[in-house]
Specification:
Blueprint (H helix, E strand, L loop, with lengths): L1 H23 L3 H4 E6 L6 H17 L2 E6 L6 H8 L7 E6 L1 H8 L7 H4 E16 L8 H8 L5 E5 L5 H13 L3 E5 L3 H10 L4 E5 H9 L4 E5 L25 E9 L4 H15 L2 H9 L8 H22 L5
Parallel strand pairs: 1-2, 1-3, 5-6
Antiparallel strand pairs: 3-9, 4-7, 4-8, 4-9
Helix pairs in contact: 3-11, 5-13
């Protein structure tokens, strides 16, 4: 009996030590923040996440990791983040594609506008129109005149509903010219065909096109914005080119699952604002063509305005994924 009691006492002490140790261990949700990138590693969104993550880790006093969950034009990762526990352990870094997907894709497994809260807009990137070498157009108006000729011009994109597709269709509908859409599996193969002269034009982010324009492999025509690009200051804006309706920038923002406590959202917003204004981070974002970071209130206003602008436009244009 004594042996049994002694054994019981030892087991009890071990059990109490285990319970005490478990209580002392911090929960992962308070120590680790996961930035979900809904695109593959190495792409622009992933690169921005990895620029921001170290500074955000310092500002929050927590470990910050980047997790790529690509697929279906960003909807796989967005769905994962939208359904995550709203405790601050999972945040989403996505782009304007969130809005465009809502207007082009049926039966999404989430509702971006109702399942996600905008917290901080890291910045936006201008888009621009570029044409193949040998097209022999020196201005937007010359391009439109050629597009109204006997031979239809074509353009490349990353697929139905992406910003490259929407940008070119914005031109086609505004100028009332027929343009033939040729989708690719990514921006890189589309640019290869543009430089080879196999397609006529693209609309893409300025930082993506910049090196090819600077070395003369493609020709930049117009910035789809109200201001010139600091990366390519010689390229005129859409307004300067006579078509102010051509406005399309691609934003990159942080969102969280709906239901995250207000205080936690405000702390994340503060930490992100501190991060993007650190000199080393700000310099890297500027080199990537980023500008105009915005707090939660401004981001929410932009978010709502984009839904109000693009969903009716996409419906009218008949742009839908299959």
């Amino acid at each position: 009996m004594l042996l049994t009691l002694t054994h019981f006492a030892r087991v009890s002490r071990i059990f109490l030590l285990v319970i005490a140790g478990a209580a002392a261990m911090p929960a992962q949700s308070t120590d680790v923040v996961k930035i979900v990138v809904p695109f593959s590693a190495g792409g622009p969104t992933d690169q921005i996440a990895r620029i921001v993550a170290p500074g955000l880790s310092e500002a929050l006093g927590k470990t910050v990791i980047v997790e790529n969950r690509g697929g279906a034009g960003g909807t796989v990762g967005a769905a994962y983040a939208a359904k995550a526990k709203p405790d601050g352990s999972t945040i989403l870094l996505s782009t304007s594609s969130l809005v465009l997907s809502a207007g082009t894709t049926s039966n999404l497994p989430y509702d971006a506008r109702h399942d996600l809260d905008p917290v901080y807009l890291l910045g936006e990137v201008q888009t621009m129109l570029a044409v193949r070498p040998g097209l022999n157009v020196e201005s937007l108006q010359a391009l439109i005149a050629k597009a109204k000729g006997p031979k239809n011009l074509n353009y490349g994109s990353t697929g139905v509903g992406g910003t490259m597709h929407v940008g070119a269709e914005l031109l086609a509908r505004t100028a009332e010219v027929p343009l033939v859409h040729i989708p690719y599996r990514g921006a890189a193969p589309a640019l290869v065909d543009l430089m080879a002269g196999n397609i006529d034009l693209v609309n893409a982010d300025v930082p993506v096109l910049k090196p090819y324009i600077q070395d003369g492999r493609i020709q930049g025509l117009v910035i789809f914005d109200k201001r010139r690009s600091p990366l390519l200051p010689d390229i005129p804006t859409a307004e300067e080119a006579g078509m102010p309706e051509l406005q399309l920038t691609n934003w990159y923002g942080v969102l969280v699952p709906k239901g995250m406590p207000v205080a936690a959202r405000q702390e994340l917003e503060r930490a992100l604002d501190e991060t993007v204004h650190r000199p080393e981070v700000a310099a890297k974002l500027a080199d990537a063509g980023f500008s105009n970071p915005q707090n939660a209130a401004a981001f929410k206003a932009r978010w709502d305005a984009d839904f109000e602008r693009w969903l009716p436009w996409l419906k009218e244009a008949g742009i839908r994924t299959e």
